[in-house]
Each structure stands twice: as structure tokens, then as C-alpha cells.
Amino acid sequence: MTSGILTTGNPVLRIPPASPAAAAAHFGASLAFHADVSDVAAALEAGGDPGFVVLDSRSTASWDQGHIPGAVHLPTALVAEQAAGLLDPAVPVVTYCWGPGCNGATRAALGLAELGYQVKEMLGGFEYWVREGFAFETWEGPERRTADPLTAPAGADDCGC
């Protein structure tokens, strides 16, 4: 080993794993910044106040195509000027956009944090909400698709994570 880099040809271990303490700090911090689709759905489906509001940061055309029931619509570009009129600063916000290939939810979360809101980003976005088989609303009304077995276990209510 030279300078903390393994000299083996193994690409996974070429750079050694972090210490357990550093890994715990990193992954703990990650969970403070992110929520996954299944956890958001479970909290919303439990009934009552989930303790957070879901914010769709996409365009109006995207919102009309489909969004999470009960979500607040606030496009990323309008966060600075409209957040105060739509959101309670005492209630944490969970942002989402299209999916893993879109950083609109990240940019919306940054804007909200800069305004003083507590915020998390929903990993997977609207794409994984739909792929995991959760109900959504369109301009035409409610809709639900069968869960994709690559994102949710077939015939089970929970992935066991």
C-alpha cells in the first residue's frame, strides 16, 4: 500500500473503504438529507399528519402529467419568490423532481434551505414513485400502475430495507 491507495488490480478496493466511524458519519448524514420513495409513501399512507410536506419542484406541464397526491407544486425556479406563501417554515419539506437523472429537487432543496426551511430530497423522484406502484394524480384524475419488479418486490408490501 502506498499513500493510502492499494496497489492491487481490484477496482473496488483500489481506494480502501473509509473507517467505520467515517462511514457511520457519512451514511448518517446522508439519511438526514434524503428520504426514499417507499418511506415517503408509508408515512403518507399511515394517515394523520406525516410531519412533513411533499413538494413537487417540476414545471406545470410535468405536474399535470402526474404528481404525488397532496403534494405542493412549486417549480424550482420559483422557490425564492413563492415559498413563503405556500410553505410553513416550521414544517419540514421533502422535495422531488422527475427522477435520478434530474437535479431539480436538489436545487429546490438548496433554495429552501437557504430560506431557512428544513428539507430532505426524495431519492428516485416521481419516476420511482410510479415505478414502485404508488397512486398519483394527473390532470385527468387519479392513476396507479403495477409496480415494476425491479424496484419493488412482487407481492410484498415492503422491500425489507
Question: In words, what does this structure look like?
Answer:
This protein has 161 residues and is an alpha/beta fold. It has 6 helices and 7 strands. The protein has helices at 20-33, 37-45, 60-65, 79-86, 104-114, 125-131; strands spanning 34-36, 53-56, 72-73, 93-96, 119-123, 136-138, 141-143. Strands 1-5-4-2-3 form a 5-stranded parallel beta sheet. The chain has a two-stranded antiparallel sheet with strand order 6-7. The longest helix is centred in the first third of the chain and has 14 residues, at 20-33. The chain is globular and about 55 Å long.
Keywords:
161 residues; alpha/beta; two-stranded antiparallel ribbon; 7 strands; 34% helix; 15% strand
Blueprint of the fold:
Elements: H1 20-33, E1 34-36, H2 37-45, E2 53-56, H3 60-65, E3 72-73, H4 79-86, E4 93-96, H5 104-114, E5 119-123, H6 125-131, E6 136-138, E7 141-143
Parallel strand pairs: 1-5, 2-3, 2-4, 4-5
Antiparallel strand pairs: 6-7
In angstroms, what is the radius of gyration?
A: 19 Å
The percent of residues in helical segments reads: 25-40%
Order of helices and strands: HEHEHEHEHEHEE
Average pLDDT, rounded to a whole number, is 92
Which term fits the overall shape? globular
Separation, N- and C-terminal Cα atoms = 35 Å
Instruction: Please list the strands of the largest sheet in the order they lie side by side.
Output: 1-5-4-2-3
Binned strand content? 5-15%
Largest sheet: 5 strands, parallel
| Structural class determined from secondary elements | alpha/beta
How many distinct beta strands? 7
- The number of helical elements comes to 6
Low-confidence stretches: none
